[in-house]
């Protein structure tokens, strides 16, 4: 594998990073909405969001990407693969992050909400000032764990036809017939992205576990 | 937009799709079994007194957990023939699923082993039980119970990731649906239906796992 091939992989890497960042940021915004809806106390809304989460957690990401990709075209929204995959991954992330953050919102002791109510804080300030800051802290290790999942999940965009790192690897491997080298390098590039996050997540988990004691 | 949904190709392909579900189940179950074996083996090696072996297991787990399954399956697909092993896509996919699931299983099972306090072992030995008896009669069940929820949800994830095996055209639901899609161009209809199939598959698996949990682990903690 020469220098040009490696540069081509790096261009793919750039798109993998871009896709991960877009999906994580948009997914976080939507995920927060899902988490809040899931804990809002209105039975019907909670049921609907629970169903939304269950659908995304019970089906393969690959199928979700296919359905979004072809579904958007069907309702007349013309989108290139990049935008369609971003939408698909955003929806996927919103469901998983929504579930993680629901758990951490519920893990904040009830007394916190009650105290905030006693201080006459309305829903918005109660959430913004009291519950969410604590919930975010609790959720950090799991959130980082999901970010790693998401980065790895962007590789499925290659099957839909978007040229990110894995598809760049496929293209190069078909050109130079050295699949082991190419996919080895591709794997190392993913590892370099994910491993620091995994280590940081594990570090936070240990830190929080000792603080509780 | 004036597109009318047409599910005829899906209905015509229904027998194929249902048979393909069996393919998905086969991949999933064989993958789980292999993952369990690798998981247990890995934990044993992870406890070994030889430092190199311990690091080997740690390295294996971290490499697998920090790279995408799709890249792993490609790598294995091309690496096995180089190692002189020629296999069809489906067994290759099972090996890849087992290796991937095994890395996660190692971490989960290790957590379970650590959750059993040393006193249990010592108490069993003090009662004059043999080491194997202590393991079988005292350690095993609580350890299984401790790892059961995370191991089974990992297995559901493994089942869902069988769809990625379509990338090397293993026989399972996604690859069959891709074939029907390319014959009929009814992409949305096909994939929408197949997504529903997967939802049912994962739901069934969760029910089965929950049944066994209620059957064997429904005793009070204290």
What does this structure look like?
The complex is a heterodimer of chains A (213) and B (222). Helix content of chain A is 85%, strand content 0%. Chain A contains 9 helices and no strands. Chain A has one domain: Orthogonal Bundle (MetI-like fold), CATH 1.10.3720. Chain A is globular. Chain B has 222 residues and is mainly α. In chain B, 79% of the residues lie in helices and 0% in strands. Chain B contains 9 helices and no strands. The mean pLDDT of chain B is 91. The interface between A and B is large, with 40 and 36 residues.
Features:
heterodimer, A: mainly alpha, MetI-like fold, B: 222 residues, mainly alpha, 9 helices, 79% helix, 0% strand
Structural class of chain A: mainly alpha
Q: How many domain units of chain B? A: 1
Radius of gyration of chain A: 20 Å
Largest sheet of chain B: none
What is the arithmetic mean of pLDDT of chain A? 93
Give the H and E element order of chain A. Answer: HHHHHHHHH
Shape of chain A: globular
* Mean of pLDDT of chain B: 91
What would CATH call the class of chain B? Mainly Alpha
Briefly note the CATH topology name of chain A.
MetI-like fold
CATH superfamily of chain A: MetI-like
Beta-sheet strand percentage of chain B?
A: under 5%
Order of helices and strands of chain B: HHHHHHHHH
